[in-house]
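User: Sequence in, structure out. Go.
Assistant: Echoing your sequence, followed by the structure tokens.
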Amino acid sequence: MTRSIVLALALAFLSGVTASPASAAPSHPTETVVLAGGCFWGMEGVFEQLKGVTSVVSGYSGGAAATAHYEMVSTGTTGHAESVEITFDPSSVSFERLLDVYFLVAHDPTELNRQGPDDGSQYRSEIFYTTDRQRDAATAYIRRLTEAKTYHDTIVTKIAPLQAFYPAEEYHQHFMARNPNYPYIVYNDAPKVVQLKRRFPELLKRT
């Protein structure tokens, strides 16, 4: 084999090696956090509206796998909270902006073991963080709200590391989007979306 042929083959190989990374589209790492704040139908329906949020799943957190079923969680004795697992792109929406929506739109953080018409520890306000930064940011956020006297009553939101998240039954997923005329949605959750659009229009996905 002549040197010219070897050189040509080498150049072709190097060209292929260097071209691949350049042609690959850059990707942004995502983060996940689990938020509890009352019925997961409304929480899911609100956070699905946000740009940078790639997935919202209704489910249960705070208890054991064996009791992560709606009928059992509804008893308020399992340790679970109805929650939503939110996957988001921090380059498009920051964790702090998610906290804006969580505390100021999605639920009332001063209600202890209840939310609106729903009563029980399964409807508690709790942040299940997945990184130390999320823990610190949530703690600082609550401190700022408290110092600013944003609410007349004490904020009761708990902050705990995420141990496990269990997706809820299929009929609970995307419930607001699939059942916009359901009475509970109309009276309790649809107004939250209206408030979100009024208060944080810059956070909304483009339709």
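User: And one key feature?
Assistant: The chain has one domain: 26-203.
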